Amino acid sequence: MDEFPSYDTVRDWLDEIAEEIPEVFFKELSGGVLLLPEEKYHAESDKSHPLYIMGQYRRNAMGRTIVIYYGSFKQVYSRRPEKVIKEKLKDTLLHEFTHHLESLAGERGLEKKDSAKMEKYRIRRGQRKRS
Questions:
Q1: With contact defined as beta carbons under 8 Å apart, do 64 and 100 qualify?
Q2: Does residue 1 belong to any structural domain of this protein?
Q3: 72 C-beta neighbours (distance < 10 Å), count
């Protein structure tokens, strides 16, 4: 793939993927699923080894929302086949839905796994700095 798919194309893919998800999973997801155009870096991202946020589950006074960052996908998956981009989009959406469902159930299993992955990033980043 020479050019990354347009925002509108990715939005259409995201809509198709969301339609496959059982309606009950959307319970209390008052903000729905949003595709935002920007790229988003993790607060601890290192410029020499950027850490993009692909999606987020947001829970605040305004409600619950899943956000997917088009710009992050474009940065990470440019020049990748369409099939790969769609798979990663689906993986990210399902990951964020898992956060949503765990939040409703009062669980934090995926949050703990994400924290462990972040710790590995910190260790790799620290090793790079010492070299």
A1: yes
A2: no
A3: 21
Beta bridge partners of 49: 46
Contact 38, 28 (CB under 8 A): no
Provide the domain limits for residue 88.
7-130
Residue 101 falls inside a structural domain: yes
State how many domains the chain has: 1
The reported pLDDT for the residue numbered 1 is: 59
| 45 band by pLDDT with thresholds 50, 70 and 90 | confident
- At residue 17, the pLDDT reads 98
Its pTM stands at: 0.91
Tokens for 60? 């605040």
99-123 burial, b at 16+ Cβ within 10 Å, e below that, comes to bbbebeeeeeebeeeeeeeeeeeee
